[in-house]
């Protein structure tokens, strides 16, 4: 049965329990549990971690601990009964544990390991505390170590500082705020110093200063290694001061046997001593440890003959020294013993033995000998600090080893009262003796005895050294053969005090013979009494003693015989009449010297002191003796303190009148002597004497009289030293007075009480008199007053023995009140006065409430004065702190109310004023002190105090001033952070006091300043304070740990909520005055609502509705609220405030309120608008805050910027975000976008002189100046982005302004800038960007992207795969969709991210520019990809059954057109799709478009050559004609004939008759155009090219014959065939197949190849068998040309053809964009199956349109490896030959051979529209831009308009999108990934809505076989002019042929056609050309080893060794030609034609 537990209430889990039983409680090891019930080995209870979950657990898993249970029962609380510091360590370690692991994660490894070490130490220290085996001192020390470590860890981990007192955590409720502040300061200092933590309270005034800490040396002799002595030895250790040249300690003696061990076996391991009482001053002296070694044995060590073996002498052996200064540092660092080895040196000359240690120290090596290696003393040393009691406590083991205490000679710095000592130190200095008829000098030994008066030898009164027992006699060591020995040996004589008087010393001198007998012969003696006749002991000096002769027979039995003799010179002078017939005769030539030093607390050597003590013997000398007392040394006085005091008071009683003043002075002298730090500890002796031994019952009268007399004299005397001394002695004088009065009262039963009281009162009047004197002119008086004030507080305790508390308080009040109250008495006196007051407050008197009532007013008065003057602030704060501390501790008493009332009246106002002053100066420490004082006072105040305070104000102005002050102080307190961040306890207490105070004051504010007396300033101050309070960092509980949060909530609650309620209540009280705070308070209140505390938000958000309502009432709208709210919301959210839940709550609460209003519609609109703004702001913040990519940040910013402009019309915010967006673009180097962004701001400005204020980084200036600056900056950015066309209108606009102002200098500059931009357009290379459509589907995308589709302008060189990877890295959670279909609702609404990406083709707006013939291609290329708003992509599909013989019959095109919100380029690289349009193009319409385009292209090209008499390069024309004729011959347009001229088709589609007719007419027209072209070709063809021309004629005839039956009108031969002029007829063109040679010859970036290598047969119809090869997938960015051999090899494998060996048949490419409308090919021999796919970007799309062609050309070009000395464009001229021909010759020829087909225009478009190129196909490989340049060239010179269409600078006009290219002209672009057919590393997203289509062949065919579209691509030009090109009137002579060299840097992917060189030579030359090495990018796949050899160098590569000899003439010819202008992919028509003709003839000749 479960029973409630009685004892078992609390325990710790010692083994984890998994709760595997029903109702089991899961417990982890280390958790604590509270036990409620028990049952048979099980407990039921709760874990303290989860107090709400109850369960059962095994009893044996729990270790029980004692606990205190309160409130027993259901709601009982249990507190463990353990030391609070143990609890703190436990909690702290748990808190550190998680933070410690984070340190490792954050790579703070150093702190990680340090903290681990500290945590282990804490665990160990905690274990020691819990063991319970420590002494109290050890517990205290352990606690000290624990607190130091806890504070260190907390500081380094950024945790809170813990205030402590005596190592215990203090409870802030139990102490005053001032004390709490001081504890924080103290804890902070202890952390910083990491030293012992002393009591954290500030020392009270008058506390004793610390006693100096004595030092002690512990010395232990480990061993003495020697092997040459072989005798017993004595080793004497002592401390020697080298500077003073004297020993400063006793000697420590160690007696060793001949083996080196202790002579006494008990001494083993116990040969140790403690040299005590060394002061700090001693430690700085040049100290040495000196060891003298004396051997005991024969006279001579190595001579056994010298002396008999039975006689042992003490003989000097050696000495060793160790410098203390050298080892002190290491001893200080190490807290344990440290070993040292001392070398023992021997003396060379025994006569210098007494100085051997000095010689060794001075290194006088001639006087001593170095030892052998085996000689040495091994000692250990340890430095100890503290008094002896402490040393004994801390090192008990030392004292257990038989420690020898070795004292200092003389007294230590501090003489302790109980230190009784009576030691006489005697030094045997030297002797001078006669030889006595001996031939050699004597060996003299001195024997000494101490004899008492009766002649008895005193036992054990001689000590050779500590560590050995005392003895009765002393034998000196013997110096061999020395009559003048110098011993220098110190002997201690510890003679008992009672035997000292009458004792004497006798010295006997013996000669130690070394003869056989070896006897010691006595030859003299000396003696000395210890005390003189006058009672003084032997003085500390050297004494020369007389030597008296004697012999062995002399007897000393009758000591009186010699004691009557003079012992020394002084003695002789004292008794001149000595009979000469005595038994002992003095030896006048011999002398003996000793020196003595007395260290005795009982004996004196001072005559004056002795005279005083024996004053009755000489009563007439009393005056003199008392006068000389001042000259007696302090040591002597303190030794005889009690005797001296007794004597003085006896003298005083003997004759008061006569001796009173002298006794008083002597007493003052002695009292002041005890103030010396050396004798400070004798004060207790004095106190004891006064309490127990003092008997002067009448003394008080004289003492009072003298004291009063001194006081009264102070006004007159000039010298006041004696008065000042008396003032300093005031404390003890009063002790004597009071004790004397008590004794008198006791003796007389209280007689003369009144006289005593009146005398004391008179004395106090004198004191007041002294203090009231003006001391400004008298320094001596100033010192007297200071001395009096310093001593004054010390007499209170004495007075309290005789008077009541009130009486003493009155005395004190009168005295303090007598001080000058004005602060003019000088600063030093101010300080003394305040210190006196401080000590008064700290005294016992002040702790009585009765005295406080009397004293507090005067104390507060003085403090008030100083605070008003702002003087001595720190002392004042200390006094106030003490007052508050006392008041707090006695806060239960009723009197406290009155005291607090006094303090409030006197201090509150001045405290506030002081704080404001201090805070303005930012004095941190003073501010902290005074803040703690103010908070202490406010905390003591209760309702009554506040009521009185508020009622006492005379007027509302005073109240207003007070409120403003206190609110201001509170605000500063929160703003300035007076308390450091980690003082959490202090900060929370401060907040609690503030919120309590504000609650009291708010009622007064409401009552006095609401209605008619409304005061905005006070209310505003109040609201500001409340807002600051709620936003305090220390109150944001969400960011702290849950344990700490719970503690704070339990103690204080959530103070933010309290203040929020107060704030809301006060807001409601405002009534109609609310309008004054709109809009000023909106921002602050918004900040409050953004605090992440739901309750605060619920309270505060409705205030916004209130504000809207009041403004609506006043103004009829709430525009101000709206504007301010939006403004502030932006800045606050960007600071990190607010979250999604706030947005929802804001919307919910306000909509609910607004619903009920009359203005609900505008209100709802506003709330919705703000909510939507918050959505965008939160998105923006998340983007900016996270590691987001630039794109996402830019998109987010654009979204937010547009919102500000379009939805809420906030111009300033809009402009701010314009600049933020501009900065982002600049960072990403999107210069064009940056320019467009800045243009938005520029368009808001006018050309006016209106002044503008300073804004962002703009200075205050006129609108004109700002607009000008902006324009210049924008032009600069357009220039950097190479968008010169956009910059030119701005240049013109600026020029217009400058012209109107006649600012010609600026005008000149801007015109030059404009001109340079035109130059740049024509000369500098620019890359055309790709465009990609991106769909963002799913709810996980940011708000501004969710379920939207965008078109993005790619970066330079960026292809689809790269773009796709970039997008996936920006959205790592996103999934790439593998199909182009529009997603369904499931995807749109799912919580995921889906990306759909494919390339699209731009549809340019500027069609007219593109249609102009004479516009250079560089100009056109800009308009093809800029200012584009429409994009499209095509998808081929079959309708109905598919004809395997001819697919074109059923292949349709689905064309999707996307319209964007803004044109690209613009303020962003991407814009949202606004509209989608979808149309279907029929197969017939597509065929019409293809043929029509090709016709137009041919006409344009022929026109150029007709109207220019060019005799040069006609390669372009040759290639074009060859492409069309050859294709037609080999079945190109035959496919169209089969498909659409079939009778079945005509019958089934009667509606298509008109279109079929149109197609026939176009075919007829093509035959005619070809005829004209051949005629022109014949005219200009080079002789060497005649064979080619002949071949073309033959093929044209074949073509004409093949079409004869279809078109009978073709039987007439064209002029080119017959040699005669041929009228315009119907000529058909066909495409030729592509041979392997031609594949290798075609340059990868040649115009023919602009669509990609695999696109040359972009619409090829095979007229032969359709070959079904296997699946051939081509993946690449149009990079198929990178490995032509490889490509050809694959094609050959896929399409073996016996007739056309090696020709590549139809290879279709599925581009990463979309299907091309040019779906049919007319010139293929084979068709490919539909499974042959290449996924490529638009670079391989095969778009038939002119703009596309050039883009593809660039794409292919960009895939080339980079070459350092070649530009990346295909637009450069070159003068270098390539394979024997000018490089453009091959390209032109290849175009001629291969031909090109283009799809026709959309039949639904008008003529003008038909110029718009068709979208490129994702499945075609159309070749073509080769005919574009002739077309352009033919129209050159006809452009009247500038390249930039004139347009006005309307708003938004520049919202375009432009891709800025950063590579200057000479820079090499980085190589892009080049992939072969086999080696694509990536399967990209299908880039278009196409299903896999068939591959197309290498000729100009788009589709063939099963997947061909049935649409012919005869015409590759996309210019649908219906009329012929007008004739050219200009000539082409001015254009050198090199100028056309567009592709000089590109490698030809095919072997050249052979002209004048043999094939082998060409092949050799190709092999010989080294390719420039380059490092491929990471994604480039190296070529297979079987790949073809290196390609020939670039056209103008300087090294062509194989061509130099054969083509020398050509080389010279080329180099002599002038270089033309750089062009992009276009040839000047004339040079092109000439070159074509020449190459054609060479080709023909070569074949022949």
Structure explained in plain terms:
This protein is an alpha+beta fold. The protein is 44% helix and 13% strand. The protein contains 68 helices and 42 strands.
Task: Assign the structural class, choosing from mainly alpha, mainly beta, alpha/beta, alpha+beta, or little secondary structure.
Answer: alpha+beta
Summarize the biggest pleated sheet.
Answer: 8 strands, antiparallel
User: What is the radius of gyration computed over CA atoms, rounded to a whole number of angstroms?
Assistant: 58 Å
Question: Roughly how much helix do the residues carry, as a percent range?
Answer: 40-55%
* Arithmetic mean of pLDDT: 74
**Share of residues in strands:** 5-15%
Low-confidence stretches: 195-209, 1610-2034, 2040-2048
Q: What is the CA–CA distance across the termini? A: 120 Å
Query: How many β-strand runs?
Result: 42
DSSP helix count?
Answer: 68
In terms of quaternary structure, the protein is: single chain
Overall geometry comes to: elongated
Strand order of the largest sheet: 25-24-27-28-29-30-23-26
């Amino acid at each position: 049965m479960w029973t409630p537990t009685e004892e078992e209430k609390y325990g710790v889990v010692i083994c984890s329990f998994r709760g595997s039983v029903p109702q089991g409680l899961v417990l982890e090891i280390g958790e604590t549990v509270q036990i409620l019930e028990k049952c048979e080995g099980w407990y039921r209870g709760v874990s303290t971690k989860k107090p709400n979950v109850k369960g059962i657990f095994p009893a044996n898993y729990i270790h029980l601990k004692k606990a205190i249970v309160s409130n027993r029962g259901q709601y009982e609380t249990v507190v463990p009964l353990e030391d609070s510091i143990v609890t703190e360590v436990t909690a702290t370690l748990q808190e550190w544990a998680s933070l410690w692991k984070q340190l490792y994660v954050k790579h703070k490894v150093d702190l990680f390991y340090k903290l681990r070490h500290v945590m282990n130490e804490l665990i160990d220290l905690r274990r020691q505390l819990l063991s319970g085996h420590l002494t109290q001192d050890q517990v205290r020390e352990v606690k000290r170590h624990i607190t130091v470590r806890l504070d260190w860890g907390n500081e380094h981990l950024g945790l809170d500082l813990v205030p402590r007192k005596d190592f215990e955590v203090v409870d802030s409720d139990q102490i005053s705020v001032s004390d709490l502040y001081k504890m924080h300061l103290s804890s902070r200092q202890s952390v910083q110093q990491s030293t012992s933590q002393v009591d954290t309270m500030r020392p009270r005034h008058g506390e004793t200063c610390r006693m100096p800490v004595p030092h002690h040396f512990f010395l232990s002799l480990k061993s003495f290694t020697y092997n040459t002595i072989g005798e017993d030895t004595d080793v004497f250790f002592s401390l020697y001061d080298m500077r003073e040249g004297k020993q400063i300690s006793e000697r420590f003696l160690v007696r060793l046997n001949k083996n080196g061990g202790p002579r006494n076996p008990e001494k083993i391991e116990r040969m140790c001593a403690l040299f005590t009482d060394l002061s700090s001053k001693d430690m700085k002296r040049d100290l040495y440890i000196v060891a003298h070694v004396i051997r005991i044995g024969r006279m001579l060590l190595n001579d056994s003959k010298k002396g008999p073996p039975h006689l042992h002498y003490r003989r000097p052996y050696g000495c060793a020294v160790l410098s203390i200064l050298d080892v002190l540092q290491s001893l200080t660092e190490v807290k344990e013993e440290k070993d040292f080895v001392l070398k023992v040196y021997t003396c060379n000359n025994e006569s210098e033995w007494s100085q051997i240690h000095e010689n060794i120290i001075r290194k006088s090596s001639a006087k001593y000998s170095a030892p052998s290696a085996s000689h040495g003393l091994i000692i250990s040393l340890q430095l100890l600090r503290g008094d002896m009691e402490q040393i004994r406590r801390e090192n008990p083991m030392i004292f257990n080893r038989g420690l020898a205490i070795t004292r200092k000679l003389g007294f230590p710095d501090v003489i302790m009262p109980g230190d009784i000592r009576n030691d006489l130190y005697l030094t045997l200095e030297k002797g001078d003796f006669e030889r006595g008829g001996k031939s050699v000098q004597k060996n003299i030994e001195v024997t000494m005895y101490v004899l008492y008066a009766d002649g008895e030898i005193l036992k054990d009164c001689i000590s050779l050294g500590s560590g050995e027992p005392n003895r009765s006699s002393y034998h000196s060591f013997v110096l061999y053969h020395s009559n003048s020995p110098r011993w220098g040996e110190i002997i201690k004589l510890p003679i008992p005090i009672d035997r000292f008087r009458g004792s004497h010393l006798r010295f006997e001198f013996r000669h130690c013979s070394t003869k056989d007998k070896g006897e010691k012969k006595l030859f003299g003696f000396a003696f000395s009494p210890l005390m003189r006749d006058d009672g003084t002991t032997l003085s500390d000096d050297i004494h020369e003693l007389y030597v008296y002769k004697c012999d062995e027979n002399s007897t000393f039995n009758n000591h009186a015989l010699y004691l009557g003799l003079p012992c020394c010179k002084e003695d002789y002078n004292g008794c001149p009449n000595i009979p000469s017939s005595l038994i002992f005769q003095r030896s006048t030539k011999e002398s003996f010297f000793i020196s003595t030093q007395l260290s005795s607390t009982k004996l004196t050597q001072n005559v004056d002191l002795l005279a005083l003590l024996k004053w009755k013997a000489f009563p007439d000398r009393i005056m003199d003796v008392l006068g000389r007392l001042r000259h007696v040394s302090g040591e002597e006085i303190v030794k005889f303190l009690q005797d001296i005091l007794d004597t003085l008071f006896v003298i005083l009683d003997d004759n008061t009148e006569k001796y009173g003043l002298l006794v008083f002075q002597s007493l003052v002298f002695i009292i002041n002597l005890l103030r010396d730090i050396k004798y400070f500890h004798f004060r207790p002796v004095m106190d004891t004497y006064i309490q127990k031994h003092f008997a002067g019952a009448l003394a008080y009268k004289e003492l009072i009289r003298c004291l009063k007399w001194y006081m009264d004299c102070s006004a007159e005397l000039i010298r006041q030293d004696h008065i000042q001394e008396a003032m300093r002695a005031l404390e003890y004088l009063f002790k004597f007075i009071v004790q004397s009065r008590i004794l008198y009262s006791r003796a007389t039963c209280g007689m003369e009480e009144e006289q005593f009281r009146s005398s004391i009162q008179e004395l106090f009047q004198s004191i007041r008199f002294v203090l009231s004197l003006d001391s400004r002119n008298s320094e001596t008086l100033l010192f007297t007053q200071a001395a009096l004030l310093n001593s004054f507080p010390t007499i209170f305790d004495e007075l309290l023995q005789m008077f009541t508390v009130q009486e003493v308080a009155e005395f004190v009040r009168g005295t303090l009140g007598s001080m000058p109250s004005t602060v003019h008495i000088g600063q030093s006196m101010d300080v003394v006065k305040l210190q006196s007051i401080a000590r008064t407050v700290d005294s016992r008197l002040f702790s009585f409430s009765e005295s406080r009532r009397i004293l507090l007013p005067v104390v507060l008065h003085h403090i008030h004065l100083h605070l008003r003057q702002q003087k001595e602030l720190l002392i004042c704060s200390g006094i106030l702190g003490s007052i508050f501390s006392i008041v707090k501790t006695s806060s239960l008493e009723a009197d406290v109310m009155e005291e607090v009332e006094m303090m409030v009246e006197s201090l509150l106002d001045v405290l506030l004023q002081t704080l404001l002053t201090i805070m303005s100066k930012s004095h941190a420490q003073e501010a902290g002190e005074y803040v703690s004082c103010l908070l202490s006072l406010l905390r003591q105040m209760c309702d009554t105090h506040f009521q009185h305070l508020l009622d006492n104000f005379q007027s509302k102005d005073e109240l207003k001033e007070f409120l403003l002050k206190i609110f201001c102080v509170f605000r500063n307190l929160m703003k300035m952070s007076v308390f450091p961040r980690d003082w959490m306890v202090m900060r929370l207490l401060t907040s609690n006091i503030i919120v309590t105070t504000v609650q009291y004051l708010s009622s007064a504010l409401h009552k006095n300043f609401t209605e008619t007396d409304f005061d905005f300033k006070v209310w505003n101050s109040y609201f500001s304070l409340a807002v600051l309070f709620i936003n305090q960092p220390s109150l944001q509980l969400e960011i702290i740990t849950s344990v700490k949060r719970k503690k704070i909530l339990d103690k204080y609650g959530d103070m933010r909520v309290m203040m929020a309620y107060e704030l809301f209540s006060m807001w409601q009280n405002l009534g109609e005055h609310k309008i004054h705070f709109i809009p000023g308070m909106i921002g602050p209140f918004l900040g409050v609502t953004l605090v992440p505390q739901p309750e605060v938000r619920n309270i505060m958000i409705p205030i916004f509705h209130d504000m809207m309502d009041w403004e609506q009432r006043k103004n009829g709208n709430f525009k101000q609220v709206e504007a301010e709210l939006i403004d502030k919301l932006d800045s606050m959210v960007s600071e990190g405030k607010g979250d999604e839940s706030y947005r929802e709550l804001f919307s919910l609460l306000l909509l609910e309120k607004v619903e009920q209003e009359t203005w609900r519609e505008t209100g709802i609109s506003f709330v919705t608008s703000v909510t939507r703004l918050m959505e965008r702001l939160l998105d923006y913040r998340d983007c900016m805050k996270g590691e987001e990519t630039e794109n996402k940040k830019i998109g987010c910013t654009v979204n937010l910027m547009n919102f500000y402009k379009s939805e809420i019309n906030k111009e300033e915010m809009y402009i701010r975000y314009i600049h933020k967006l501009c900065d982002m673009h600049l960072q990403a180097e999107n210069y064009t976008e940056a320019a467009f962004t800045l243009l938005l701001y520029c368009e808001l400005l006018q050309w006016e002189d209106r002044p503008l204020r300073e804004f962002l980084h703009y200075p205050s200036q006129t609108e004109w100046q700002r607009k000008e600056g902006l324009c210049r900056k924008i032009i600069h950015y357009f220039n950097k982005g190479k968008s010169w066309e956009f910059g030119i209108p701005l240049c013109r606009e600026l020029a217009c302004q400058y012209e109107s102002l006649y600012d010609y200098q600026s005008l000149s500059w801007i015109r030059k800038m404009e001109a340079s931009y035109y130059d740049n357009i024509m000369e500098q290379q620019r890359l055309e960007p790709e465009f990609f459509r991106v769909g963002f589907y799913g709810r996980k995308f940011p708000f501004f992207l969710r379920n939207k589709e965008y078109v993005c302008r790619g970066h330079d060189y960026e292809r689809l795969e790269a773009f796709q990877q970039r997008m996936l890295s920006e959205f790592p959670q996103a999934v790439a969709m593998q199909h182009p279909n529009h997603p369904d609702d499931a995807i749109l609404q799912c919580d995921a991210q889906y990306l759909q990406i494919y390339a699209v083709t731009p549809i340019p707006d500027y069609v007219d520019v593109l249609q102009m013939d004479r516009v250079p291609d560089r100009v056109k290329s800009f308009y093809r990809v800029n200012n584009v708003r429409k994009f499209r992509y095509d998808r081929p599909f079959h309708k109905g059954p598919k004809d395997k013989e001819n697919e074109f019959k059923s292949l349709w095109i689905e064309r999707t057109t996307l319209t964007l919100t803004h044109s690209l380029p613009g303020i962003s690289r991407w814009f949202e799709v606004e509209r989608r349009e979808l149309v279907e193009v029929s197969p017939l319409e597509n065929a019409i478009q293809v043929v029509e385009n090709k016709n137009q292209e041919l006409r344009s090209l022929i026109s150029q050559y007709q109207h220019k008499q060019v005799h040069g390069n006609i390669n372009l024309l040759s290639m074009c004609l060859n492409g069309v004729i050859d294709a037609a011959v080999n079945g190109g347009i035959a496919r169209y004939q089969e498909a659409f001229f079939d009778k079945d088709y005509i019958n089934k589609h009667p509606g298509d008759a008109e279109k079929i007719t149109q197609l026939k007419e176009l075919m007829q027209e093509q035959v005619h155009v070809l005829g004209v072209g051949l005629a022109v070709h014949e005219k200009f063809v080079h002789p060497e090219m005649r064979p080619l021309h002949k071949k073309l004629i033959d093929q044209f005839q074949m073509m004409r014959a093949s079409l004869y039956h279809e078109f009978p009108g073709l039987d007439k031969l064209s002029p080119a065939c017959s040699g005669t002029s041929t009228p315009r007829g119907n000529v058909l063109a066909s495409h030729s197949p592509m041979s392997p040679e031609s594949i290798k010859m075609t340059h990868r970036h040649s115009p023919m190849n602009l669509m990609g290598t695999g696109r040359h047969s972009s619409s090829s119809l095979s007229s032969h068998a359709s070959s079904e090869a296997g699946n051939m997938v081509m993946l690449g960015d149009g990079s198929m040309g990178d490995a032509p051999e490889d490509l050809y090899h694959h094609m050959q494998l896929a399409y073996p053809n016996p007739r056309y060996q090696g020709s590549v048949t139809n290879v279709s490419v599925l581009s990463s964009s979309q299907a091309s409308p040019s779906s049919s090919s007319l010139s293929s021999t084979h068709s490919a199956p539909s499974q042959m796919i290449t996924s490529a970007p638009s670079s391989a799309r095969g778009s038939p349109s002119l703009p596309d062609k050039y883009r593809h050309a660039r794409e292919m070009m960009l895939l080339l490896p980079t070459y350092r000395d070649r530009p990346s464009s295909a637009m450069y001229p070159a003068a270098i030959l390539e394979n024997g021909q000018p490089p453009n010759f091959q390209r032109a020829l290849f175009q001629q051979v291969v031909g090109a087909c283009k799809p026709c225009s959309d039949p639904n478009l008008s003529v003008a529209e038909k110029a718009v190129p068709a979208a490129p196909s994702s499945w075609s490989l159309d070749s073509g831009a080769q005919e574009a340049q002739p077309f352009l060239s033919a129209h050159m010179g006809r452009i009247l308009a500038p390249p930039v269409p004139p347009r006005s600078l309307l708003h938004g006009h520049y919202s375009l999108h432009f891709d800025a290219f950063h590579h200057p002209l000479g820079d090499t672009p980085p190589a892009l990934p080049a992939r072969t057919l086999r080696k694509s590393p990536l399967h990209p997203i299908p880039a278009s809505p196409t299903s896999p289509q068939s591959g197309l062949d290498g000729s100009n065919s788009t589709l063939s076989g099963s997947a061909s579209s049935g649409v012919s691509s005869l015409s590759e030009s996309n210019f649908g002019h219906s009329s012929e090109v007008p004739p050219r009137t200009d000539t082409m002579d001015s254009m050198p042929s090199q100028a056309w060299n567009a592709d000089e840097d590109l490698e030809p992917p095919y072997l050249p056609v052979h002209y004048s060189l043999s094939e082998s030579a060409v092949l050799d030359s190709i092999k010989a050309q080294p390719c420039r090495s380059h490092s491929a990018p990471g994604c480039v796949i190296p070529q297979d080893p079987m790949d073809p050899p290196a390609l020939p160098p670039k056209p103008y590569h300087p090294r062509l060794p194989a061509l130099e000899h054969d083509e020398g003439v050509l080389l010279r010819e080329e180099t002599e030609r002038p270089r033309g202008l750089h062009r992009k992919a276009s040839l000047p028509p004339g040079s092109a034609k000439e070159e074509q003709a020449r190459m054609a003839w060479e080709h023909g000749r070569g074949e022949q």
